[in-house]
Amino acid sequence: MSAPRYREAQVGGCTRARVERRADGSTLVRSTEALQAFPPRLTDRLEHWAQQAPERTFVAQREAGGEWRRISYAQMLARAQAVGQALLDLGLSVERPLAILSGNDIEHLTLAIGALWAGVPHVPVSTAYSLVSKDYGKLRYILGKATPGLVFASDASYARAIEAALPADVARLVGAAELDRLLATRPGPTLAAAHAAVSPDTIAKLLFTSGSTKDPKGVVTTHRMLCANQQMIRQCLGFLADEPPVLIDWLPWNHVFGGSHNVGIALYNGGTLYIDDGKPTASGMAETLRNLREISPTIYFNVPKGLEEIASAMDHDTLLRDTLFKRCKAIMFAGAALSQPVWDKLHAHAEAAVGERVRVITGLGMTETAPSCTFAVGTDVAAGHIGLPEPGVDVKLAPQDGKLEIRFRGPNVMPGYWRAPEQSAEAFDDEGFYRTGDAVKWVDADDPQRGLLFDGRTAEDFKLSTGTFVSVGPLRARIIQAADPCVQDAVITGINRGEVGALLFPRADECRRLAALPADTALPEVLQHPRVRTFFQTLADRLWRESTGSANRVARLHVLAEPPSIDKGEVTDKGSINQRAVLAQRDALVQALYDGSAAGPSSILPNQ
User: How many structural domains are present in the chain?
Assistant: First the structure.
């Protein structure tokens, strides 16, 4: 059988590495390719493209009538300079930054780039903290920590949150019409001086982590971090330089993947970013699919859930399939593991559309590293691979609790957390490597050039009462794959107990579809339906049967009728579940699961 053919795409930078094994048991890994020069300020790339391709669309967003509203590079430069002057006139500074509460839109991007131009940090805040949260606790904490001098929101739906969380003396700007006032500002000498003072160490933005188990931490993100990381990405994904990239993207800008990685790719490489107002939810996918039937990206980004929905939609939508793959050089995911069945389906659809496969790439990165540190870009990449270091990133593999923790050092790594000196000090080891808490292992210990595999979170792993070590990441991935499509995520239980268990967050829409129930049927009723109960009983039996020992033998399941809570830190607005937060918030349920008092239609024991 001949090897599958892949669409040609120039890649490099992260395909070979030097490996140094040290006497203390740690291993240093570095790319064999040096990091090339990068500009001192991210806005230098805006200025460059405004000169080289002034009429090229930088950002576009669909208006109510269905047409795309477009802003060119020259227009964005003019908008940024006007807004930058206005922010300085309002007294904004490092100590009094700009906070943006609303989601992805042209106004948000204009304000952000205007702040970058003027050397004023901006603070993009999760929309869920304003629109989903009931107590506004995280919003109040973030605004208190950041002390903004101005808060922007796109419309009046944010008014209640602003009143609840913002001191009365802080200026606020609500709606696009209010932004128009700033755009009328004439740039002057104070802006010129402020822009000239922007350096690689100037804070570009503060990105607050989700704060799943503690208060959110403000990651100080500098111009050096953003520019260095974009140059790293450009060297690894060489095709970004071959033609201006085209992105159609929904990922929220308060997260590093959407706001730093993807927006940065468009800006750094003179590309066009189409803002996708859809989301990978039952109600939001329709808009994403509509956009993908019209816009052919050169590279496409999404979280695994989004790619799963798109892959399924392409089963019966050839226009969607053909448009997506028409000129796409690579599909990239992050944020969670992509199941191999979805991976295989993407390959099959690409072959049907263009006669060859398109690379599915991934890697490892985080908010603290701006974000990208490793890439897996080869045609032999499979689920779990994270590849090798990018140029300029030093990787340390440090033995930690029986695993290898991956740590990073380089120009893309943060200087620390905002106004948190103790947390900043704890984040780095004695050689200046950022401690990620992520565990990895080699794909092939005898051939390091094949790269690294993600091996879960060191802080999530635990021991049973027998002393047996449970590796949470691989077990969780196994459960989700076996439970496809009816389970969104699994939380592993069993700390200091004799058996492993799992709490399952079901996909309500898939369970309703399985039971042939109406879309408005309450989840508790759905979970009691015989077909659904049979599905989960079969799952429990399979997990028990296929286990190889007590560390991965799931002895009890509980299907949760209560969705994860963002206020309690159980879930981020991207839908990522935090294991420790769920276990802490649902401790009584875990206790009941083990003492037998949680017995009922949602608690399942395998037929042994």
Answer: 2
